[in-house]
Design brief:
The complex is a heterodimer of chains A (about 270) and B (about 270). In chain A, about 60% of the residues lie in helices and about 0% in strands. With about 270 residues, chain A is mostly helical. Chain B has one domain. In chain B, strands 3, 4, 5, 7, 8, 10, 11, 13, 16, 17 and 18 form an eleven-stranded mixed β-sheet that branches. In chain B, strands 2-1-6-9-12-14-15 form a seven-stranded mixed β-sheet, with no helix packed on it. Classes of the chains: A mainly alpha (about 270), B mainly beta (about 270).
Chain lengths: ~270, ~270
């Protein structure tokens, strides 16, 4: 496939209209906000969420504390602001999952893909919410690839073989290894695929933040454009690494994320 | 992964004549072991690991192996927190590696005090467990933000855990905290991970209940996940204060008090 086609393909894949279900996930933001550990940036307002999930009142209390000039002295007394949370979560995602996108992109062998899938499953054992979200989106991405993106019968056969492996329980179909495989088939180069992976996660988190009323739509654009530079630097730092180096960096975020199903009321699947 | 490090210590615990005995031991500077044989109803072997200075100065490397034989019971713990001291030179990183094997019917309780990350310290750890089918493990791993006036101000805390059951990886965790993470910690000053595997551990121990109300949940976050195939569970805790987390750990291990003759998280 020629370079121009791959470029257009990349645009198609980062389009938020691609039906992979990313909009249904907040990457732990909903659980973190409900626990009172995250609030919107000062001046951007923390409003009660639609439906008033409990815990948002807690965030509002902390926001009020933060507004007191004498109360900002130490990071220990204030929860994280939204940008800090999103940045930390994207960084951790880059450190953990880019190696899986990278290695899956490098090999067309289905058994190699299954091994990567199993290893990522082991690394997500303590966060079943993240594992479930990844498997759901991986399956949706494979479906889109089969019905909407596959450009020849060879690619279609390979994608169908992956889908069969998932339905037989031979693989979970986690998103990062699926993404790497499919983007390689579509001729998108590995570095671009890794950057796209982070960009999609950033976009989905900020979309979730808007719907949780943690940030307004204009402010979200500003945060996204600011953090897009971070996506560049994170991709540069974590791209092309082996999966033996895959690790996490945001301990609190990962633990909060894994409590998602305990939320009394929730808007997102994860 | 891990480096090709020479072992500084070796421990073997076996079930001999109704009690668990340390049948092989070796330790060299800076590592030492202390033993309390034949504790509790099970006649468990208690082993305390001690490093000179109570912790790691930059560049220290300590590696040791533990093997728990069929039906044996071993409690491996420490006498005080493991301090990760300030680095002496720019990239001198302290390193600890443990390799643990547990045979069918054996139970290892690895329940140390927390690692305390002092300002500007660099610490890396690899803890690897190989369980035969039917082996049991209680593994507690925790880290604190440093001394009283310090808050996640270390240079590096890198901690990798790999648990294999019958050759299959059932849990891999790799967490790396670097300089500048303090603003991602909210008010949390301690993190703990507890992994419970196998029938002997599962029959006694239950995960702690999630914090019921919003006020409590801002002090301690509790998250439990089942291990693949229902062979056990992993509980992760994030806490504002060390005392609360110590209490939760002590309570989790209480059901084994009589069998083991004590609780690593209660003062004797």
């Amino acid at each position: 496939m020629g370079g121009v086609d791959a470029e257009c393909m990349a645009w198609t894949i980062i389009d938020s209209g691609l039906p992979t279900g990313g909009f249904a996930h907040s990457l732990g933001l909903e659980a973190a906000a409900a626990s009172g550990h995250v609030l919107g940036r000062k001046g951007e307002g923390v409003r009660a969420a639609p439906g008033g999930a409990r815990g948002h009142c807690e965030a509002a209390t902390w926001a009020a504390t933060e507004a007191r000039p004498d109360a900002v002295a130490s990071t220990r007394d204030a929860p994280m602001d939204l940008t800090t949370y999103v940045d930390a979560q994207i960084s951790s995602l880059a450190a953990l999952e880019l190696p899986f996108v990278f290695e899956a992109h490098a090999s067309t062998d289905i058994d190699a893909w299954k091994r990567l899938d199993a290893l990522l499953q082991a690394q997500l054992v303590s966060n079943p919410i993240a594992r479930r979200a990844s498997a759901t989106q991986g399956a949706a991405f494979l479906r889109v690839a089969a019905t909407g993106l596959a450009s020849n019968t060879d690619m279609l056969a390979r994608i169908e073989a992956m889908r069969t492996a998932v339905s037989k329980g031979e693989a979970a179909g986690l998103l990062a290894p699926v993404f790497g495989q499919v983007l390689a088939m579509l001729g998108v180069d590995a570095r671009k695929a890794q950057k796209m992976y982070l960009f999609i996660a950033l976009r989905d988190m900020l979309s979730a933040a808007k719907r949780l009323a943690l940030i307004g739509p204009m402010a979200a654009v500003r945060v996204q454009s600011n953090l897009s530079a971070r996506v560049e630097s994170l991709a540069a730092r974590y791209q092309d690494r082996p999966v033996s180096d895959a690790h996490q960096t945001f301990m609190l975020g990962d633990i909060l994320h894994s409590t998602h199903d305990n939320l009394f009321r929730r808007l997102f699947l994860s | 992964m891990g480096e090709q490090v020479e072992l500084d210590g070796r421990l073997a615990v076996e079930y001999v004549g109704n009690v668990s005995e340390v049948t092989s031991r070796y330790a060299r500077y800076p590592l030492r072991f202390m033993f309390l044989p034949c504790q509790g109803d099970l006649g468990a072997a208690w082993v305390f690991t001690i490093t000179y200075g109570g912790g790691f100065v930059s560049g220290d490397k300590v590696a040791f192996s533990t093997s728990v034989g069929p039906d044996a019971t071993c409690v491996l713990t420490t006498q005080a927190s493991t301090k990760s001291y300030k680095k002496k030179s720019e990239h001198a990183t302290a390193y600890q590696e443990t390799r643990n094997t547990i045979s069918t019917g054996g139970l290892l309780i690895l329940a140390p005090d927390a690692v305390a990350c002092f300002t500007n310290s660099r610490f890396r750890q690899l803890q690897r467990f190989h369980l035969e089918a039917g082996a049991s493990l209680v593994f507690v791993d925790w880290v604190t933000c440093g001394r009283a006036h310090e808050f996640w101000d270390m240079d590096l805390y890198s901690n990798r855990t790999e648990i294999f059951l019958d050759g299959t990886p059932i849990l891999v965790e790799d967490m790396r905290l670097e300089a500048g993470v303090a603003n991602q910690m909210g008010k949390v000053s301690v993190f703990a991970t507890v992994v419970i595997v196998g029938a002997r551990a599962l029959s006694a121990l239950k995960p702690p209940a999630p914090m019921a109300d919003v006020e409590e949940a801002t002090q301690v976050v509790v998250a439990t996940a089942e291990l693949p195939g229902g062979v056990g569970f992993v509980t992760r805790l994030a806490g504002v204060g060390v005392e609360q987390i110590t209490r939760i750990l002590a309570k989790m291990l209480d059901p084994l008090n009589k069998d083991l003759g004590g609780n690593p998280y209660r003062s004797q």
